[in-house]
Amino acid sequence: MKIICIGRNYSEHAKELGNAIPEKPVIFMKPDTAVLKGNDFYIPEFSDDVHYELEVVVKISKGGKYIQKETAHKHYEEIGLGIDFTARDLQSDLKSKGLPWELAKGFDGSAVVGNFFKKDNYDLQNLNFSLLKNKEKVQNGNTKNMMFAIDDIIAFVSQYFTLRVGDLIFTGTPEGVGKVSENDILEAYLEDEKTLDIRIL
């Protein structure tokens, strides 16, 4: 199972980190060992600045290569929410040296995956999702603000990577990312339904 992640897919998030607006999807990967087991996230010892990034996640249900945008919708049936935990201090250091981000993005437990739901129950072009930290809303996103829609992402990614059943695509985070601290509680909502909650340790 691959975890394919899209960076800078919401312009306001790109701006808040001082990044350029991309002309094509920015791709990075997480290993399957990044998936968090259970509901407790332990801040790794190598970072003092781990950030939450809430994202809509797509689960691939039909594999393919060179998928066309017009048929991309046939390759997934379920969506959910996930958190892309990022060691921001480590990422900034790596980026400043022109090095890959994987150490800051792919560490154990850095990919939180909540419950999945049938996509047919939602308007994927106008989907609200939000993250609460200690009961205070810190991220509030809508898929209409994506620069690259889900079907565009699938078509683009499949030019380079063969997609297989069970692969996950994290589609990018809106603005409002921030640091987590010990004893924080994170809760994610897809529309009005809670899909995950995480305790920070």
Automatic annotation (TrEMBL):
What is this protein's name? 2-keto-4-pentenoate hydratase/2-oxohepta-3-ene-1,7-dioic acid hydratase (Catechol pathway)
Q: Which UniProt keywords apply?
A: Metal-binding
Name the Gene3D superfamilies on file: Fumarylacetoacetase-like, C-terminal domain
Cross-referenced PANTHER family: ACYLPYRUVASE, ACYLPYRUVASE FAHD1, MITOCHONDRIAL
**Domain Fumarylacetoacetase-like C-terminal, which positions?**
2-191
Coiled-coil regions in this chain? Answer: none
Q: Which superkingdom does the taxonomy of this entry point to?
A: Bacteria
Under the heading InterPro entries, the entry gives: Fumarylacetoacetase-like_C, Fumarylacetoacetase_C_sf
> What Pfam families would the database entry show?
FAA_hydrolase
